[in-house]
Design a protein that fits this description.
505 residues; mainly alpha; Growth Hormone, Chain: A; 3 domains; 23 helices; 75% helix
Length: 505
């Protein structure tokens, strides 16, 4: 391809915007589905006559299926083409959603959720790779901001939609709502996505590497899921799963170094300084930011007694702030570099998180909404610029293999952040209850939900203090992002400067 003109290098042309919107159409249902299902777990447990621990596998099974398919996404895109892979993934997620709506038992629902996960797990890395190739290196900041919308708005509007569906319809609709969206997303992809072909040298599938890497991710994510559900890392089974995952990753690293570019994901990509620093930044962003997203609806629903619908509406300012920052941050990232934008975003996120470290049982909703808007601006100015920076120096032919690396590290980081913050929250809450002569019950977040309503007036201040402590942990985890931000690029290309060839699909 020829280099884009100065004007096209400075602006997102119509084809890139259309491609981004097609990707958003597919990703939005996946991101919303995750938060909607989390809201509906209690209802699913009652309707399908299952224990809450069994129903939790509706979430865990999906998460493990995602871990299985993330590593194969890059090879599939090289072998069958980005468009065909994307359409297949959206189709599988949509079919899985329809099957979930027909589930007659909790066991059937878990199996169908796994099918959903096999499709949904390919959409995040697939979407990132497609938009990175379409935009080219000079416009990555603005292009990634487009697909950042569902990733940041999902946790905000998911509880609203989930709460409304559970309150006014049946549980089947939390899955049925995905079907028309999925059909539309497939139709748009067939119509508008460029028909990028497969690579002749995609090579044979690295079965050994796939088994090692997928197995390692499954072990890590399951171990972190156990840590969240049990409220800490004290159980030996948690450490056994985490150790198994770490050992598997070490074996995969050795395998990839010996096999080279034909491995399922080439770890030598991390030799690129920008990709390495971007990957570390994405990991820390996922730990600090996405873990914090878990605490917010929990605080409103437990310490303040709000329903899922009201809690979702109270979270809306965070989404609005994120939209504002992504529009501005994407353009600034392309002009002056993520190294200048991300530290400002981290600072805003810290300012917006600070009021939550002081929450009480009666803290003003107006004050918290202002803080959430500022925190949302921080989220929008941090997440997508770090991802865009990671892709900046990568040649076109490795983009599809790099995307699963970032998706996997983001998934592990989000799970680790959630586990760390749930641990901080529940252990502080247990300490507070014990100090006041109240016997704690349950483990993990179940300990909070098991508090009887009549006791909430006594327990609410203790619970609010526990949330404040957990937000201090989130504050510290967010501050750590300053370290990799120092290594992100601090200079954009001057307007009118010739850009590298924008990779095509």
């Amino acid at each position: 391809m020829t280099n884009p003109s100065p004007m096209s290098a400075d602006k997102l042309d119509r084809s890139v915007i259309v491609t981004g919107l097609v990707i958003v159409a597919g990703m939005i249902m996946v991101v919303l589905d995750t938060t909607i299902v989390n809201v509906a777990l209690d209802s699913l447990s009652q309707e399908l006559d299952a224990t809450l621990s069994t129903t939790q596998w509706v979430v865990t099974g999906y998460l493990l299926a995602v871990a299985l398919v993330i590593p194969i996404t890059g090879w599939a895109m090289d072998r069958f083409g980005p468009k065909a892979t994307w359409i297949a993934a959206v189709t599988m997620f949509t079919i899985g959603s329809a099957l979930c709506a027909t589930a007659w038992s909790i066991e059937a629902l878990i199996v169908f959720r796994i099918i959903q996960g096999l499709g949904g797990g390919m959409l995040l890395p697939g979407g990132q790779a497609i938009i990175a190739k379409a935009a080219g290196p000079q416009r990555l900041g603005r292009a990634m901001s487009i697909i950042g919308v569902p990733m940041l708005l999902g946790p905000v509007f998911g509880p609203v939609i989930g709460g409304a569906l559970i309150e006014y319809t049946s549980w089947h609709w939390i899955f049925l709502v995905n079907v028309p969206v999925g059909i539309l997303a497939v139709a748009l992809a067939v119509w508008k996505l460029p028909s990028g072909g497969s690579l002749d040298d995609a090579g044979r599938l690295d079965y050994r590497g796939l088994a090692l890497l997928s197995g390692s991710l499954v072990c890590l994510l399951y171990g972190l899921s156990l840590a969240s559900s049990r409220g800490g890392f004290g159980d030996w089974t948690v450490w056994a799963w985490l150790a198994g995952g770490a050992a598997g990753l070490a074996l995969y690293t050795w395998h990839s170094l010996s096999k080279g570019p034909s491995s399922i994901i080439d770890v030598r990509l991390l030799k690129d300084r920008l990709f390495a620093s971007g990957t570390i930044a994405v990991f820390l962003v996922a730990i600090g930011m996405f873990g914090g997203m878990l605490l917010l609806p929990l605080y409103y629903q437990t310490a303040r007694g709000e329903g899922a619908l009201a809690a979702g509406l109270l979270l809306a300012p965070q989404g609005l702030g994120a939209i504002v920052a992504m529009v501005i941050g994407g353009r600034l990232t392309d002009r002056i570099g993520a190294g200048w934008v991300v530290p400002v975003g981290v600072t805003l996120a810290l300012i917006g998180t600070l009021p939550f470290t002081q929450v009480a049982a009666d803290t003003s909703y107006v004050w918290l909404s202002v803080a959430l808007f500022v925190r949302g601006m921080g989220l929008g100015a941090v997440m997508m610029p770090t991802i865009a920076a990671a892709y900046t120096n990568l040649p076109e032919h490795v983009v599809s293999r790099a995307a699963p690396t970032l998706s996997a590290i983001q998934q592990v980081g989000a799970s680790l952040g959630s586990a760390l913050l749930v641990t901080a929250l529940t252990q502080r809450f247990t300490h507070n209850l014990t100090d006041h002569g109240i016997a704690p019950s349950g483990g993990g977040t179940d300990q909070i939900s098991s508090v009887p309503p009549e006791a909430m007036s006594t327990v609410s201040p203790l619970l609010s203090d526990a949330f404040g402590f957990a937000f201090w942990v989130a504050f510290a985890l967010t501050a750590v992002i300053f370290i990799p931000a120092m290594f992100l690029p601090r200079h954009g290309k001057a307007r009118g400067q010739s850009a590298p060839a924008a990779p095509g699909l």
